[in-house]
Amino acid sequence: MLGGMYMYLIKKVSEISGVSVRTLHHYDEIGLLSPRKNEHGYRYYTEEDLSYLQTILFYKYLGFTLKEIKGLLKQDESEILPHLKRQLILMKEEKQRILTLIDTLEKTIESQERRITMPTKEKFKGLIFQDNQKYRQAAIDMYGKAVIESAIEKQKGKEQELTAGFNEIFFAFADNKSHQLEADSIENIALAKRLHDHLCKYSFDCPVSTFKDIGYNYVQNEEFKEQLDQFGEGTAQYVCDAIVEYVNKNI
Predict the structure, then answer these.
(1) How far separated are the first and last CA of the chain, in Å rounded?
(2) How many CB atoms within 10 Å of residue 124?
(3) In terms of C-beta density within 10 A (0-12 exposed, 13-18 middle, 19 or more buried), how is residue 218 classed?
(4) Which residues of the chain form beta strands (DSSP E)?
(5) Domains of the chain as residue ranges with CATH
(6) Do 126 and 100 form a contact (C-beta atoms < 8 A)?
(7) pLDDT digits (tens, 9 = 90+) for 95-119
(8) Residues whose CB is less than 8 angstroms from the CB of residue 139 and which lie 6 or more positions away in sequence, other chains included
(9) In what residue span(s) does the HTH merR-type domain sit (predicted)?
């Protein structure tokens, strides 16, 4: 203790938090969480530092990068409480998603054991398109912050309708793929048009040439590809091929 304040050396912090000493050194190097020095030159962490470390770990769990976390913590260095309240909301959303995934997994096991065909939509409950932080950052990297922020503003109050529309379209693509329809079939070209119209209505006025780029990005960008392939392996490529065919017919 120092003047009534608890001091934790780096090894003890590592034991308490489960974060390696090497990682704590890295946090120090990038200015995310730096220990203090006492009069003898020993580096130590305080209870407040441990609270910051907890906040960092919650943000990491929620998919934020270290760079993003550093920016978030700098917004109001004196207050951890707003971050904790925000994290609680995000964690409750994550909890609901996990409960949905557990329910989906239980139903899948039951259908396998009883040899019952599970409806396509039931298979993917919890494994659906969602506007998570990683997906949003990937969109910003590709289309620019101004375009994405404008789209977010346009979507306010319509998030559920937006997501439901994407899921319905991507489920339909996955269902067509499972029935071995060609990606460039009439049915899939019609779905590509629905997707294009949905983007224009809820995101931004998307020219067909840009829509084609979006189709390619569904495959080339790992974040987009991972999202779509949750509907079934190869869905991203399948949707991309349908979009390209749709665009080629409308240029």
Answers:
(1) 72
(2) 18
(3) buried
(4) 36-37, 43-44
(5) 10-74 (1.10.1660.10), 129-248 (1.10.490.50)
(6) yes
(7) 776 777 677 677 767 777 777 665 5
(8) 148
(9) 7-75
